[in-house]
Amino acid sequence: MSFFTEIKIPKFPWKMDYSKSMMFFGSCFSENIGQKLIDLKFNVDLNPFGILYNPISIANSLKILLEKRVFNENDLFQDQGIWNSFYHHSRFSDIDKGKTLEMINDRIVKSSEFLLNADFLVITFGTSRVYELKQTGQIVSNCHKARAAEFRQYRLGVYEITEAYRELLEKLWRFNPNLKVIFTVSPIRHLKDGAVENQVSKATLLLAIDRLLNGFGESNCRYFPSYEIMMDELRDYRFYAEDMLHLSPVATDYIFDRFSKTIISNESMNVAKDVVRILKAVLHRPVHSFSDEYKKFLLYNLEEIIKLTINFPYLNFANEKMYLEQKLTGFQESRIN
Fold first, then answer.
1. What pTM did the predictor assign?
2. Alpha carbon distance 327, 333 (integer Å)
3. Quick one: which H or E segment has residue 79?
């Protein structure tokens, strides 16, 4: 007997695996799923402009990567001693203007090169509501707590989103013909403007994605129903965080599990289990750090890392390998002394 409505997800014609590279763009949901893949040692470039919420800001950021645009001091503004960019999340802000520009431009160069060879681009729309800077007409990625009077707030229409992405997707596929695009809508609710507005906003995003998929077909782009899974399979407040807006760790894990089973190859998910086991071993803190048993434990996990990296050279265990080797060196030195 089933106690919830299970969302049926059509099979994807292509799969992610450890040999593939993936770029994630968008809201907190994209951040959560992308970080889980990074933790499992997948090759991921996560939000090169920081967390973004609306479709136009995501599109503008991708265009910047396509152009490999260089930012200068005219692209920044200073507020309360901090230098910010309206194209970027506050993680790129700093009291030093030069450092802000360095962080922004270094990441643009690296992420532009990554996108050129990426196999997958996962785009998560969070809201269709935008903030337009009155002075320039720019739809900002982040208001950086500037005065509300400086912005005009409104909701994007379906046509505005689809037109922006028709042009963008064509440019992306000229830039990287092998790129597969996965759209999703964040299940995190934006209730600042009310529950009804949140639903209308999400519906706008869903309609826009539907039109894009119908327009381009499903050979190079697909939709993953993270929003629908949360609304139908996890429709209970126990799956929300304390603010009753964001997802709880249990909900994030559940949706990631559905994502993995749909999009990631079985072989890579089996390898991921070995990766998790090694990472847990590295975090292990023994009662007796200089015992023979602990030495065997260290050697065993070093051998496991070597085996995995031989079979899957895409895996990067450099930090874990260095940590285990340092522990072994400390063990041997203690025996000499």
1. 0.92
2. 10
3. strand 76-79
